[in-house]
From TrEMBL:
<comment type="similarity">
    <text>Belongs to the short-chain dehydrogenases/reductases (SDR) family.</text>
</comment>
<dbReference type="GO" id="GO:0016491">
    <property type="term" value="F:oxidoreductase activity"/>
</dbReference>
<dbReference type="Pfam" id="PF00106">
    <property type="entry name" value="adh_short"/>
</dbReference>
<dbReference type="InterPro" id="IPR036291">
    <property type="entry name" value="NAD(P)-bd_dom_sf"/>
</dbReference>
<dbReference type="InterPro" id="IPR002347">
    <property type="entry name" value="SDR_fam"/>
</dbReference>
<protein>
    <submittedName>
        <fullName>SDR family NAD(P)-dependent oxidoreductase</fullName>
    </submittedName>
</protein>
<keyword id="KW-0560">Oxidoreductase</keyword>
Length: 298
């Protein structure tokens, strides 16, 4: 029986995935890393009702000291033998700030900080708690390039810059939040490739894309009319939803079927997909690693 950790379990994709993990026959402990509050307590209760042990750890990913403290709590749980080493670490939490002038507690652009930097901190702090054979699953997004749907919906693709610049809050209005989101998700692809080269043999790094889930809370900052359209689109058959993609995410993290995936393999819903050539770039990947160490004060 094993342990799985997930960030962002309080709603949408992460919540459904956490509950699927709780029902998985091989998972005994589910570590839930989310903002403290009733939603975290409630999902922990639902995990217990499904027969697993829930370990809820309050953590605001916009505050790196909180992330370090949460990682320390997880290490204590493993070292004390309260939970087995992690077989799966799912970096699911995500966020889009429409205003790129907003900064995290540490002064980094908020979207880059929550989606990317906080997870890089967490994973770096938890590598010693991973089981000999384990998976790190990061959440990617096809917004990193200008695919057909993004062009149709006018969602801008990533505009890559040096990571130190990406982490800098905008000085003036006008920088698009969705560009920052796409940059953070491209950073996740680059990070996953570099991480695989640096983790112990036996640790597999995977990037999961749940499909566009228009009804999720990721668009919570959008105008109410846009959110209503999203909810309506989410009811169209074939469109991804947290209910459909959450169990797939849990499966990618723990099921034998996916055990050969590594090197940042990009899984879209339930299919391994080639990334665009620009998402494989050794020079950018190395530079991101160095810049991340600098930003995290390592
Ligand atoms: N929705 C899509 O179409 C789509 C497509 C591709 C990829 N993805 C990715 O899939 C993942 C899940 O997306 P979703 O649609 O389920 O998003 P969501 O409905 O907005 O849920 C996001 C989760 O992240 C947590 N979170 C956000 N900011 C946080 C912070 N500062 N500290 C701690 N937790 C924080 C939220 O916690 P609270 O409940 O406390 O806010 C929530 O649990 C994200 O990584 C997203 O980028 C989504």
């Amino acid at each position: 029986m094993t342990t799985a950790l997930i960030t962002g379990p309080t709603r949408s994709l992460g919540r459904v995935a956490a509950l699927a993990l709780a029902e998985h026959p091989q998972v005994r402990d589910v570590v839930l890393l989310g903002r403290a509050g009733t939603a975290l307590d409630e999902v922990a209760e639902q995990v217990r009702r499904r027969g697993a042990q829930a370990h809820a750890i309050g953590c605001d990913l916009a505050d790196l000291s909180d992330v370090r403290a949460a990682a320390s709590t997880v290490r204590d749980l493993v070292e004390a033998g309260d939970v087995r080493p992690l077989v799966a670490l799912i970096a699911n939490a995500g966020f889009v700030s429409p205003d790129t002038r907003r900064a995290s507690v540490d002064g980094h652009e908020l979207t880059f900080a929550v989606n990317y930097l906080a997870h890089a901190q967490l994973i770096g702090d938890l590598t010693a708690t991973l089981a000999t054979s384990s998976r790190i699953v990061l959440l990617g997004s096809n917004t990193y390039y200008a695919n057909f749907w993004r062009r149709l919906l006018k969602v801008p693709p990533a505009q890559w810059r040096d990571p130190i610049e990406l982490a800098e809050p905008a000085a003036a209005e006008g920088h698009l939040g969705m560009t920052a989101y796409s940059d953070a998700k491209l950073a996740i692809l680059y990070y996953a490739h570099e991480l695989q080269r640096r983790v112990a043999a036996g640790v597999n790094v995977i990037v999961y894309e749940p499909g566009w889930m228009p009804g999720s809370a990721l668009s919570r900052s959008a105008p109410p009319a846009v959110q209503a359209i999203g909810r309506a689109l989410g009811r169209i058959p074939g469109v991804a939803t947290p209910e459909k993609s959450g169990p797939l995410l849990a499966s990618v993290a723990v099921d034998e079927r996916w055990s050969d995936l590594r090197d940042g393999a990009f899984v879209v819903r339930d299919r391994v997909t080639e990334v665009q050539p620009m998402a494989q770039d050794r020079a950018r990947e190395r530079r991101l690693w160095e810049a991340t160490a600098e930003l995290l004060g390592r």
